[in-house]
Amino acid sequence: MKKPKTLKEDEFLSGFDGTDRLTPVITLVLYCGDKPWDGASRLHDILDFGKVPDELKSYIADYQIHVLDVCHTPDERLAEFPPDIYTFFLFLKYKDDPEKLKASLPDAAPVRSVTCEAVADCIGERRLRQFIPEKEGEKVYMCKAIDMLIADGEKRGIEIGEKRGIEIGEKRGIKIGEKRGIKIGVKRSIERERRNTERERIRAEKAEARVRELEEKLKVL
User: Fold this and answer.
1) If phi over 0 gives left and psi between -120 and 50 gives alpha, with beta otherwise, what is residue 52?
2) Where are the domains of the chain?
């Protein structure tokens, strides 16, 4: 059992004596956005110095903000992390492109169950949990999970392609129908004008014949 420290009067409030040391802490921002990180890189970047005199700025503590932009960090840099974390990062980075994910993890080492659970939760694919072995301590081979994501992508692609094909076909059909309808409408309009012209001609001929007939009768009188 550790003996209680004997603190001096001026050390009592802090609980620190001259031999105590703090444990160093590294603050790391894990960023997984699709767009590159464009936030602050230092504490001073997010402080409002508008009312702070220049001569006092150096007295305000500053420290660097360490950001790991997962989706925009080269794979070789991510590979510097332990295998489980590396696999986790690649699933986040290529969650929308399983083909690239498979190319980046051709011989991926098996991961712990907790890693598979974390991947399933973070990328929103709860079905990945089906690959977690029932026996405690057994590791998960993520290749099958990747193949499932690829198959899903192919299925969605086929469905989207079929839907777009139907839409394109319908649009083309409408255009063709409109074109044919216009032709038929113009043709019918021309035929209607011809019939009207013919009727007018016949009426004119009848009227002219009637006029000649009256003229002949008037001559006889």
Assistant:
1) beta
2) 24-72
Give pLDDT tens digits for 78-106.
989 888 888 888 888 888 777 777 777 76
- pLDDT class of 157 with cuts at 50, 70, 90: low
Say how many C-beta atoms besides its own lie within 10 A of residue 14's C-beta. Answer: 9
Task: Look at the alpha carbons of 132, 137, 142, 143 in this order and tell me if their dihedral is positive or negative.
Answer: negative
Length of the chain: 221
Q: Give phi and psi for 140, each to the nearest 5.
A: -110, 130
Q: Enumerate long-range contacts of 203-211, CB under 8 Å, 24 or more apart.
A: none
pLDDT of the residue at 56: 92
- Decide: 63 and 42 in contact? Cβ < 8 Å: yes
Q: What is the DSSP letter of 140?
A: B
pLDDT band at 150 (very low <50, low <70, confident <90, very high): low
Residues 6+ apart with CB under 8 A from 153: 98, 99
Residue found under tokens 């074109």: 179
Tokens of 221: 């009188």
Cα 167 from Cα 62, distance rounded (Å): 58
Evaluate whether 82 touches 64 at the Cβ level (below 8 Å): no
Question: What's the Cα-to-Cα distance from 11 to each of 3, 43, 157, rounded to whole Å?
Answer: 17, 31, 68
User: According to DSSP H, which parts of 107-142 are helical?
Assistant: 113-122
